[in-house]
Amino acid sequence: MSQSNSLTGSCATQSCNSEEELVDLIAREVRNILQSEIAGPKVRAVSNSGYPLIPIGISNRHVHLTERTFHLLFGEQTEFEPLRPLYQPGEFASKHTITIVGPKMRSIPAVRILGPFRKYDQVELSLTDSIFLGVDPPVANSGSLEKAASLTLVGPHNSIHCEKCAIVANRHIHSTDEEAAMFGLKNGDFCKIRIGGEKGVVFENVLVRTNKNWELQIHLDTDDANAANIRDETLAELAGKM
Ligand SMILES: [Zn+2]
Predict the structure, then answer these.
(1) Distance CA 199, CA 167 (A)
(2) Which helix (H) or strand (E) holds 55?
(3) What pTM was estimated for this model as a whole?
(4) What interhelical angle do 3-14 and 19-38 show, nearest 10?
(5) Where are the domains of the chain?
(6) H helices, E strands: number in the chain
(7) Which of 38, 55, 101, 142 suits 236 as a labelling partner, its CA being 20 to 30 A distant?
(8) Cβ of 136: how many Cβ atoms within 10 Å?
(9) 33 pLDDT tier (thresholds 50, 70, 90)
């Protein structure tokens, strides 16, 4: 059956009342097809231990902002616009970037703001970025900013000094409760993951985070990903609970 036939079939069975509903349905179907092409084979692949292999998302340096900080940096009139959706449902890369400046006046330009807005301002860096900028941020969970490092954030309209915003994000797995349970894990657990290949490694202290909307995926920063020679097709296997 071709893709267009399958769309017609779904609409016939789900009865589309309006043009808007039809557009909605098509968007949903296309998303399903795209997701099964991207994620399907990865999630279905099975490791030697019999568990599904887990896809890896590499987090380049990025920023999360409050709505207030966004408008301070970009001006009240600027609308926060998405550029492309991320793998986790509801998350997106925005069209907007800022420059971040450290205490040695060294800066990194074009650091992308991810959406939606958060309740806090947070800059996620690799340790390599941190050394370049001259800051010493802690390895922390997203949102744990008590010991975060300070940076200056520069936008096209204004700049602000952000006292506690920079962290090196800890390694973590996004999952639903059900999928985590499949691995014998629950929200808040720490586990080990193994990545094979020429520069194979075992990463420890990988935090399990669950949410009913999340897709199974491991998030590593660019330092971890590069150390393990991770490429698009690289998958990870669970190597036990900590
Ligand atoms: Zn993540």
Answers:
(1) 26
(2) strand 54-59
(3) 0.80
(4) 130
(5) 1-38, 60-169
(6) 7, 14
(7) 142
(8) 12
(9) low
State the distance from the centre of ligand 1 to the C-alpha of 174, rounded, in angstroms: 6
What distance in Å separates the CA atoms of residue 56 and residue 39, rounded to the nearest whole number?
10
C-alpha 56 – ligand 1 centre gap (Å): 10
Task: Give CA–CA dist 60/220, Å, rounded.
Answer: 9
Distances (CA, A) of 14 to 10, 19, 20, 25, 234: 6, 13, 14, 9, 38
Amino acid at 39: A
Q: Is the pLDDT of residue 154 over 90?
A: yes
How far, in Å, is the centroid of ligand 1 from the Cα of 48? 26
Distance 99 CA to ligand 1 centre (A): 22
How much is the pLDDT for 40? 43
Is the pLDDT score of 7 beyond 60?
Answer: no
Cα 137 to middle of ligand 1, angstroms: 18
Mean model confidence pLDDT for the chain? 88
DSSP 123-151: EE--HHHHHHHT--PPEE-TT--TTPEEE
Quote the pLDDT of residue 155: 98
Q: Which residue shows structure tokens 């590069």? A: 226
Beta bridge partners of 162: 151
| Spatial contact of 134 and 125, defined as CB atoms under 8 Å apart | no
**For position 52, what pLDDT does the model report?**
84
